[in-house]
Amino acid sequence: MEALPATKPLGLLSIVILILGLSFLVIHWPQGRHATFSGHAAAQRVTIWYYIALFGTSLPLLFIFFRWWFVPAFHLTYWFWLLTLGSELLQHTVTIIPEAGGWKTKWHRWLTAGSALFLLPVLGILIASNSLALSIRCVATFSLIGMLFIVAYQTFVADKAKPKNLLLWQTAYYGLFFIPIMIATYTH
Fold first, then answer.
1. CB under 8 Å to 73, separation ≥6 — which residues?
2. Least crowded by CB within 10 Å, which of 15, 55, 102, 144?
3. Are 118 and 72 in contact (CB under 8 A)?
4. pLDDT at 101
5. How far apart are CA 7 and CA 43, in angstroms?
6. Which residues of 88-101 are buried (b: 16+ CB within 10 A; e: fewer)?
7. 168: number of Cβ within 10 Å
8. What is the extent of the structural domain holding 12?
9. How many other β-carbons are positioned within 10 Å of the β-carbon of residue 71?
10. Alpha-carbon span 16 to 103, nearest angstrom
């Protein structure tokens, strides 16, 4: 399949929508650095609907970008597309199950973890791809190491009873994922 050039800007558009939308959420309805973006969104009904609309807008754009530009442009395997699709579907699911206590919080966190973990092998595919420049694969390797560090820290070291800076850790995790994607896209 050939890459569709018209879909290339949708990746950046999706990320800009997410950055602006999540920034607005955190600034307009603050819950503190100890809360994730989902924790900010779960605070009230209007923020839950806002969160659903935000991801309902940005994730389809990201899907189109990955499926019809990124994967074909770099001749990536079907697994890249399947893993990003799985991550996005889980992310859509967690937006409709807010972190509002009880079973909802439990399911939300498990599904969020699944969505985030799907992104690790995605970077592994980039690292293994011969169709990407060595410099991009090095950036992807650095990002993967950083993401693995965050997962390990949050799993084994962080104090679950007194969460600190979850918002910063979450921002760093997703930022590390998107950096090699955007560098590859705009240096190609």
1. 3, 8, 188
2. 102
3. no
4. 84
5. 35
6. bebbbebbebbbbe
7. 11
8. 5-187
9. 21
10. 32
**Selection from 143, 82, 154 nearest residue 112 by Cα:** 154
Give, in order, the Cα–Cα distances in Å from 179 to each of 53, 59, 123, 161, 168: 24, 17, 11, 31, 16
One digit per residue, the tens of pLDDT, for the chain of length 188 reads 899 999 999 999 999 999 999 999 999 999 998 899 999 999 999 999 999 999 999 999 999 999 999 999 999 999 999 999 999 999 999 999 988 889 998 999 999 999 999 999 999 999 999 999 999 999 999 999 999 999 999 999 988 778 889 999 999 999 999 999 999 999 98
The whole-angstrom separation of Cα 72 and Cα 14 is 19
Helices (H) and strands (E) in the chain, counts: 9, 0
The count of C-alpha atoms lying within 13 angstroms of the C-alpha of 78, restricted to the half-sphere facing its C-beta, is 0
Q: How many domains does the chain fold into?
A: 1
Residue type, 83: L
d(CA 70, CA 51): 26
Amino acid 81: pLDDT: 92
